[in-house]
Specification:
Structural class: alpha+beta
Radius of gyration: 16 Å
Number of strands: 6
Largest sheet: 6 strands, antiparallel
Strand order of the largest sheet: 1-2-4-5-6-3
Order of helices and strands: HHEEHEEEE
CATH topology: Thiol Ester Dehydrase, Chain A
Oligomer: single chain
Shape: globular
Number of helices: 3
Strand content: 35-45%
CATH architecture: Roll
Helix content: 25-40%
CATH superfamily: Hotdog Thioesterase
Protein backbone atom coordinates (compact mmCIF):
# COMPACT_ATOMS: atom_id res chain seq x y z
CA UNK A 1 0.00 0.00 0.00
CA UNK A 2 1.37 3.42 -0.92
CA UNK A 3 1.89 6.07 1.74
CA UNK A 4 -0.79 8.23 0.09
CA UNK A 5 -3.31 5.42 0.16
CA UNK A 6 -2.46 4.55 3.77
CA UNK A 7 -2.91 8.22 4.68
CA UNK A 8 -6.29 8.31 2.90
CA UNK A 9 -7.38 5.13 4.72
CA UNK A 10 -6.39 6.61 8.10
CA UNK A 11 -8.24 9.84 7.27
CA UNK A 12 -11.39 7.92 6.33
CA UNK A 13 -11.12 5.85 9.50
CA UNK A 14 -10.79 9.04 11.58
CA UNK A 15 -13.85 10.56 9.91
CA UNK A 16 -15.93 7.41 10.44
CA UNK A 17 -14.92 7.28 14.13
CA UNK A 18 -15.84 10.95 14.59
CA UNK A 19 -19.21 10.55 12.90
CA UNK A 20 -20.06 7.53 15.07
CA UNK A 21 -18.96 9.30 18.26
CA UNK A 22 -20.82 12.52 17.48
CA UNK A 23 -24.04 10.65 16.71
CA UNK A 24 -24.15 9.52 20.36
CA UNK A 25 -22.64 12.66 21.96
CA UNK A 26 -25.71 14.30 23.48
CA UNK A 27 -23.62 16.68 25.64
CA UNK A 28 -21.81 18.25 22.69
CA UNK A 29 -24.90 18.35 20.52
CA UNK A 30 -26.96 19.90 23.32
CA UNK A 31 -24.47 22.76 23.67
CA UNK A 32 -24.34 23.40 19.94
CA UNK A 33 -20.77 22.15 19.57
CA UNK A 34 -19.82 21.41 15.98
CA UNK A 35 -16.91 19.17 15.02
CA UNK A 36 -15.20 21.19 12.30
CA UNK A 37 -12.49 18.75 11.26
CA UNK A 38 -10.78 15.51 12.24
CA UNK A 39 -7.68 13.76 11.04
CA UNK A 40 -5.49 11.14 12.72
CA UNK A 41 -4.53 12.60 16.11
CA UNK A 42 -6.23 15.96 15.47
CA UNK A 43 -9.65 17.54 15.84
CA UNK A 44 -11.25 20.96 15.79
CA UNK A 45 -14.51 21.85 17.55
CA UNK A 46 -16.53 25.08 17.59
CA UNK A 47 -19.06 26.53 20.05
CA UNK A 48 -20.81 29.89 20.49
CA UNK A 49 -21.06 31.22 24.07
CA UNK A 50 -24.74 31.65 24.94
CA UNK A 51 -26.31 33.63 27.82
CA UNK A 52 -26.91 30.34 29.67
CA UNK A 53 -23.12 29.74 29.74
CA UNK A 54 -22.22 32.99 31.53
CA UNK A 55 -21.38 33.16 35.24
CA UNK A 56 -21.85 35.94 37.83
CA UNK A 57 -18.84 37.83 36.46
CA UNK A 58 -20.52 38.17 33.03
CA UNK A 59 -17.94 35.85 31.45
CA UNK A 60 -18.21 32.30 30.16
CA UNK A 61 -18.17 29.76 32.97
CA UNK A 62 -14.89 27.84 32.86
CA UNK A 63 -16.74 24.53 32.81
CA UNK A 64 -18.12 25.26 29.35
CA UNK A 65 -14.70 26.20 28.01
CA UNK A 66 -13.30 23.02 29.54
CA UNK A 67 -16.11 21.01 27.94
CA UNK A 68 -15.33 22.43 24.49
CA UNK A 69 -11.62 21.67 24.90
CA UNK A 70 -12.42 18.20 26.25
CA UNK A 71 -14.64 17.52 23.26
CA UNK A 72 -11.87 18.39 20.78
CA UNK A 73 -9.48 16.23 22.85
CA UNK A 74 -11.93 13.31 22.81
CA UNK A 75 -12.35 13.45 19.05
CA UNK A 76 -8.58 13.72 18.48
CA UNK A 77 -7.70 10.77 20.70
CA UNK A 78 -10.44 8.55 19.26
CA UNK A 79 -9.51 8.96 15.61
CA UNK A 80 -7.82 5.57 15.33
CA UNK A 81 -8.76 3.53 18.41
CA UNK A 82 -11.28 3.85 21.24
CA UNK A 83 -9.79 5.88 24.11
CA UNK A 84 -10.89 7.58 27.30
CA UNK A 85 -9.50 10.50 29.28
CA UNK A 86 -7.19 9.64 32.15
CA UNK A 87 -6.52 13.21 33.26
CA UNK A 88 -6.84 16.78 32.01
CA UNK A 89 -5.98 20.28 33.08
CA UNK A 90 -6.75 23.73 31.75
CA UNK A 91 -5.26 27.19 32.07
CA UNK A 92 -7.64 30.08 31.42
CA UNK A 93 -5.85 32.88 29.60
CA UNK A 94 -8.58 35.37 28.63
CA UNK A 95 -12.30 35.55 29.37
CA UNK A 96 -14.92 34.67 26.81
CA UNK A 97 -18.23 36.51 26.65
CA UNK A 98 -21.74 36.01 25.32
CA UNK A 99 -21.69 35.76 21.55
CA UNK A 100 -18.03 34.76 21.28
CA UNK A 101 -17.42 31.97 18.79
CA UNK A 102 -14.81 29.65 20.32
CA UNK A 103 -12.67 27.18 18.38
CA UNK A 104 -10.77 24.37 20.09
CA UNK A 105 -7.92 22.79 18.13
CA UNK A 106 -6.57 19.51 19.53
CA UNK A 107 -3.33 17.84 18.49
CA UNK A 108 -1.65 14.63 19.58
CA UNK A 109 1.75 15.35 21.11
CA UNK A 110 2.90 11.81 21.82
CA UNK A 111 1.71 8.28 22.39
CA UNK A 112 3.39 5.58 24.41
CA UNK A 113 1.95 2.14 25.01
CA UNK A 114 -1.78 2.67 25.36
CA UNK A 115 -1.36 6.28 26.55
CA UNK A 116 -1.44 9.60 24.72
CA UNK A 117 -0.85 13.26 25.46
CA UNK A 118 -2.88 15.91 23.63
CA UNK A 119 -2.78 19.69 23.67
CA UNK A 120 -5.82 21.81 22.92
CA UNK A 121 -5.82 25.54 22.30
CA UNK A 122 -9.15 27.33 22.64
CA UNK A 123 -9.35 30.60 20.69
CA UNK A 124 -11.95 33.20 19.86
CA UNK A 125 -12.75 33.42 16.16
CA UNK A 126 -10.45 36.48 16.02
CA UNK A 127 -7.49 34.30 17.11
CA UNK A 128 -7.26 35.45 20.74
CA UNK A 129 -6.19 32.54 22.94
CA UNK A 130 -8.80 31.86 25.64
CA UNK A 131 -7.38 28.70 27.21
CA UNK A 132 -4.74 26.00 26.97
CA UNK A 133 -5.76 22.44 27.84
CA UNK A 134 -3.70 19.27 28.16
CA UNK A 135 -5.34 15.87 28.17
CA UNK A 136 -3.98 12.40 28.84
CA UNK A 137 -5.73 9.52 27.13
CA UNK A 138 -5.73 5.77 27.53
CA UNK A 139 -6.74 3.43 24.74
CA UNK A 140 -9.35 1.00 25.99
CA UNK A 141 -7.88 -1.74 23.82
CA UNK A 142 -4.42 -2.18 22.43
CA UNK A 143 -3.82 -1.85 18.70
CA UNK A 144 -2.84 -5.50 18.69
CA UNK A 145 -6.25 -6.55 20.12
Amino acid sequence: MTNERASDDLQQRAQRAAAAMFADDQASQGLGIVIEAVSPGRASARMRVTPAMVNGHAIAHGGYIFLLADTAFAFACNTLDPAVAGAAEIVFVEPARVGDELIADAVERTTFGRNGVYDVTVRRADGTVIAEFRGHSRRVQSRAD
